[in-house]
DNA sequence: CTGAAAGCGCTTACAG
DNA sequence: CTGAAAGCGCTTACAG
C-alpha cells in the first residue's frame, strides 16, 4: 500500500508538499498540485489513519455511548445512533460504538488512550454515571438528554416544555377550554430520564397560563388499561375536548381505538395531539397531529457542539431544540356547546 | 498526559521494557515488573492508541457496516449491532459504525486508510454490493448472512434449513401428518435476504423426507389478511394439525388471535411453532415453542473468524450455526382422529 | 532479563 | 511556493 513517500517520489516533490496539498493548509502551485493529484490517483493513495492521528492533533473519531436499557424503544434508539453517525460524517468524523456494559470503562479507555477526540452520550438518565465520568474526564463531550446535575456539561435536548406548550396553544387557539394529558406509566416518571416530567410540567403550566382546565393521567401500556383510563378522563365534568398523548406507539393506537369504540370521532368530537413521538403518526387511523422528537435535530447539534469544543470555544450549557408542530388534521374546534 | 517515556523514567527502566511488560510479549523480572506497575498506576498511564496503531500491526478496530433498510426490524438490528460490539470487546476490539449511506465509500475509506483491521458486514442481502467490495478489497471480513455469490468470502449465518427441519421433526415426532408453514409476505421472498427461502425450502424438504403433507402460504402483515390466510390453510383437507410461523412479531400475535377466534386452543387443537423469531415468544398467549435467531451466536462467531483472519489462517467458507429448539409447550400430539 | 535504536506514516514549525 | 527535519508514542528486531 502506497504511503506519502511514494506519492512524493512519483510527483517529484517533498512529502510536506504532498501533505499540505492534501490538507489544503497552505497554497500549492498549480502544476505541483496537478502532479500530486495524479500520483495520488495512480497509486490509489489514502493517508494512513494512525500516522495522521499520531502526528496530528485529532483522531477524527468520536465515541458514542448508547446504552440499550430495558425501557428503551429500539427503533428510536437506532434512529439516534444513526443520526449521530450521519452528523459525525459531515465533520469527517467516525463513530466508535460503546455498549452498555462498557459504559464507564469504555469511556475511560477510549479517552485516556486518546483513541477519540470526544464523546457523544446518548439516552442520558437523571443520575447517569456517564455524566459524572465525562465531567471528571474533562474530555470534549456532548450529552443528548439532560441529567439532574448539568454543572460543567454540554447538553442538547428537545425543549419538551415548549413542545407541551405548543400542543396546549394549538388546542386553546382552536377553542378548547378543557384539556387532558395521557402520559406514560408511573414507573417512567419515577426513574430514568426527566423529559416526561418536563413535558408534563410544560403542559400543566401552559394550560394554567392560558386559563384552561387541564388534567394529567398516567396510563399503563395494555389496551384494557388504556380504555379504562380514557373513560375516566372523558367522563370528567366538564369533559375534556382536547387530548394530548405522551406515551409509546402502542398506547397511541390503543387510545385511538378506545376513542372509536366510544363512538367518538377525531377531530369532530375530540381533538388529539401526539406528544413527542419518535414514530410516525401520519399513518395512524386517523392521522395524528404531532410535535415529534426528531433524532437528527438534537444529534446534529450535539455533534456540532462536540466539534466546536475541539476548537476550545464552548461554554457548558443546556441547549434546548425548538419543537415543531406537524399538522395532520386531528385538531378542530370543539363541538359547539360542549 | 503521561507517555511511555514518563513511565520508563519513573520506573527507572527503558521504554522497551515498559512496552514488553505491558504487552507480556517477553518475560520481565519480578522487581522490574513491580516498579513498572507502580509507575503506571502513579501516572495513570494508558498507552496512546495512535502510537500503538502506527508501530504495531493492529489497530484493534473493526468496522461494522449495518444498513437500516426499510424492511429491517429495528430491535433485531440493534441486537445484532450490540452483539458484534460485545463480541469484539472480548478480543480487545472496538467497533466503528458505518451507516447505510456510507456503505461502500465508508468501507473503502476505513480499510484503505488502515483505520480498521477488518470488517463485519451485517444484514447481508442476496446481491449486496458490500460483499463484492469486501472481496475486491481483500480485507479481513466476516459477513453475517449469505449473499448469492459467496466466492472468496467468510460468511456466518443461522442454519435456516436445519431450523425448519427441526420444526418439522418436532411436529412429526409428536404425531402430526399434515403441516403448514405461514411465511412472510411475497415481497420478502422476491428480494432482500435469502434466508426466508432457505427456511421455506428446509421446511418443505424435511416434510417430504418424513413423508408428511406440507403447505406453504405467504401472509401479509395486517390482521384481516392473517385471519383469511389462516382460515384458508386450516380449511384444507386434510387440515394441518401443526403450524410453523415464519414472520414478524405482529403476524405471530395475529395468528394466535385468529386461532383463538376460531375457538381452537394451542396445543390441544393445533400445535404451533415460531420459525426463527428475533423476539421473545415465551410471553405470548399462549407461549410459543421457537427456534430463535440468536444474534450473539452468529455475531460471536463472525468476530472470531475476523480475528482469525488477522493471523492469516481462515479459508473462505459459509459457516452455518446450528439452530436450537426452545420448548414452551405449544406442541402436543394431534387430537386422535384428526 | 534488559536496553539503545530504528521505524511505523504522518503533520507542522522552521527556513528559504 | 516549496523542502528538510523534528517529532507524535509506540513496537520490535537486534544486541548484549
TrEMBL record, chains A, B:
Note the SMART domains from the entry: HTH_LACI
Give the residues annotated as coiled coil: none
**Sample GO molecular function, one term:** transcription cis-regulatory region binding
Per UniProt, the keywords (alphabetical) are: DNA-binding, Transcription, Transcription regulation
Question: What InterPro entries does its record include?
Answer: HTH_LacI, LacI/GalR-like_sensor, Lambda_DNA-bd_dom_sf, Peripla_BP_I
Please name one Pfam family that this protein belongs to: LacI
Q: Tell me where in this chain the HTH lacI-type domain is found.
A: 2-56
Q: Does the keyword DNA-binding apply?
A: yes
Provide the protein name: LacI family transcriptional regulator
Tell me the classification of the organism that encodes this protein.
Bacteria, Bacillati, Actinomycetota, Actinomycetes, Micrococcales
